[in-house]
Amino acid sequence: MTTSERIARRRLSLLELGEYLENVSEACRVMGVSRQHFYELKKSYEEGGLEALKEKSRRVPNPSNRVAPEVEEAILQFADEFPAHGQTRVSNELRKRGIEVSPTGVRGVWMRHELQTMKLRLRRLEAKAAAENRILTEAQVVALEKYRSEQEASGEEIETHHPGFLVSQDTFYVGYLKGVGRIYQQTVVDTHSSVAFAKLFEMKTPVTAADVLNDQVLPFFEEQEVPVMRMLTDRGTEFCGRPDSHPYELFLELNEIEHTKTKARHPQTNGICERFHKTILTEFYQVVFRKKIYGSLEELQRDLDEWLLTYNQERSHQGKRCQGRTPLQTFLDGKALVREKVLA
Within 10 Å of residue 140's Cβ, how many Cβ atoms? Predict the structure, then answer.
């Protein structure tokens, strides 16, 4: 449902409430609107139905206010030459070339061509360079390299070719449970399919970090006949240490799993786990802690396991790789890629 449709439904509910209560004043008080607004909506609905209640844009573009075509072309050309420059700097630099245009005028041209952010301007530059086989200037190369490095560091653009190629792990502090103490969650997410695992502990140590892999993650991947190739973690002490004595590092080495660490002070590198933590906080913990008082870790773990079944097998994802499928379905569909790229 679009925003315009939601607004129309809310306005219709106002009219229905007035009819149900048989009291316009009371309906307006409940919904927080004036009687005049009520009767304006009622008249619109009687004349045009639900369509007449939708929000309509009051702004009509005035082509005469646009910059001249040659100025617009100069702005677009400058966006290709210096995609990292903001609208004020573009205005100042064009003024040096004898082209008078305000920062607002620059942004107006950008918005008409969907170039209002640096990311969009860089994508346009990259596409044009590839299509025209152009030689980029030094400034363009620097901007593109910065953009690509940020893409690699972000969770949505992480390199993951098939299930098991890169598995992400992180520690999530759940909170303090009376009678139990502090609760930590070890989270593991397959970056290709978003299949997630979570286990609760009273502490965060290398042993607990390895335990969730041994207890939940590796048995699942072995059952699916999919090897885990790399683990991505931050640089926390539960994940990093001397390779010859650290329990987590030894566990990965024993199972022939490569260990990749995030860039220091860049938590977005592990963005897939971070996004899962936001989901589990809002859809599970903030809900169950309002419904139930937990007296043990095991009781909370049982409810968490039930929620994870729903998350992995029933909840559809709209991400880049799931595209409306559930994580488990995405994982099963990706097994063909594993056979093609790894096992072959």
Answer: 20
Round to whole Å and give the CA distance between 223 and 168.
19
Cα 26 from Cα 52, distance rounded (Å): 24
Angle at 115 between CA 109 and CA 117, to 5 degrees: 120
252 contacts 231 by C-beta, under 8 angstroms: yes
Nearest to 118 by CA among 91, 97, 146, 137: 146
CA of residue 112 relative to chain centroid, distance: 26
Q: Is residue 309 a contact partner of residue 195, using CB atoms and an 8 Å limit? A: no
The torsion region of residue 70 among left (phi > 0), alpha (psi -120 to 50) and beta comes to alpha
Considering only residues 44 and 133, tell me which one the structure prediction assigns the higher pLDDT: 44
pTM to 2 decimals? 0.56
Q: Are 58 and 46 contacting, i.e. CB atoms less than 8 angstroms apart?
A: no
CA dist 310 and 307 (Å) reads: 5
Query: Is residue 130 scored above 80 in pLDDT?
Result: no
Contact present, 198 and 312 (Cβ < 8 Å)? no
pLDDT exceeds 90 at position 319: no
CB 226 within 8 A of CB 192: no
Q: Does the pLDDT at position 344 exceed 70?
A: no
Q: How far apart are CA 272 and CA 192, in angstroms?
A: 10
Q: Does residue 195 or residue 33 have the better pLDDT? A: 195
Question: Please, how many CA atoms are within 13 Å of residue 327, restricted to the half-sphere of its CB?
Answer: 19
pLDDT in tens, 178-228: 888 899 999 999 988 889 999 999 999 999 999 999 999 999 999 988 888
Q: Are strands 181-190 and 167-177 parallel, antiparallel or unpaired?
A: antiparallel
Strands 196-201 and 181-190: antiparallel
Contact 25, 35 (CB under 8 A): yes
Residue with tokens 């098939």: 162
How far is residue 327's CA from residue 79's CA, in Å, rounded to a whole number?
A: 39
Where residue 68 falls (left for φ over 0; alpha for ψ -120 to 50; beta otherwise) is: beta
Q: How far is CA 168 from CA 192, 204, 325, in A?
A: 10, 17, 20
